[in-house]
Amino acid sequence: MPVFAEAYLEKLRRRWSTRDERDWPLVARIALLDYRSDDRDWIEASVDQMHPADQPKMIQNLQTEKQFITAYNELVVGQLFANLGLNPRYEAEFETANGKRTPDWYLGGSTPIVCDVFTAGLVQARDADETSVREIEARLSEIKAAYTIGLQVENGGDIDPRGRRDITTGATQWLAAQPQQGDTLRIGRALLEVMLVGGDRVDVITMEPMHIVETPPKLAENFDEKTKRYAPLGLPLVAAAVKHHRAEIHIEDVEDTLLGKLVYVSRETASGRIVEGEERVPNGIFSSRPDLSAAIWIEPHHLPEPVIKVWVNPSANRPVPTDLLKRLTTATL
Questions:
Q1: Is the pTM of this model over 0.70?
Q2: In the chain, N or C terminus with fewer CB closer than 10 Å?
Q3: Rounded to an integer, what distance in angstroms lies between the CA atom of residue 166 and that of residue 164?
Q4: What is the pLDDT of residue 134?
Q5: pLDDT mean over 291-295
Q6: CA separation (Å) from 167 to 37, 126, 160, 324?
Q7: Residue (of 222, 226, 231) closest to 253 by Cα position
Q8: Please, is 27 exposed, middle or buried when counting C-beta atoms within 10 Å of its C-beta (0-12, 13-18, 19+)?
């Protein structure tokens, strides 16, 4: 059964074809837009390589709008393992004293391994902020006035539909009064500024645009939660973080989170010599969570090619086999 079966595509068309494309969820864009055919082909090929018994669950998750990004990133990690010939199994169930556990991927063999995946930077509130800002921007662009205006919105996700309409109404009245360059107007959570006077229509420049920013503390919580949840399985555990396509997390943030923050130090030796250099503060996740065997960081949308980085926990209770680690460090998507 394909992911983008015709019945599913028709369901998406009925739901989204009458709405502006900017409001479509990512799965609808990939499924329905002609230029996303490469994405569709990659998804279909990756699902086709999965164990037949696991495909229906993955397809179900990919076809669920709120689950799509999470499932897509799980598929990215599964494809990474499949490319190494590891035959990963999806959401295998394990019974523990603490209840049932279903890690995203299970790798069998002489040394079984479990891997759980999380999306780094997937913050629902930020998604809501960006959606709100895009709608306000689109409404302002429809005003018939010759201006370029700056738009800055605070906590856009908290603005209800009536509030967004009020911003448009207020902006229309303000521009009709012919403000000059540099003039500003605050309407609720929105701040408008005249950048230029003239043109064919209202052009909107979003000031300090909304971004999804995953802070290192939150990143640490994600690795910590995965470790606590799957340590009871008693198997080598790998946590895989896949960067959200709009997140602003850098690989250095992940390394600091796992190994400890890198700081510059200067100290005097017993002989009186001054020694300077960089050292890591021993406060990383690896030092406090020996049940976490290794971590993988993936940036699937990085250009010109995806980024894959693997870190090994030197204090791991159950290390990942050396041969597997060597293969992972050369893996590609």
A1: yes
A2: N
A3: 5
A4: 77
A5: 97
A6: 38, 20, 11, 56
A7: 222
A8: buried
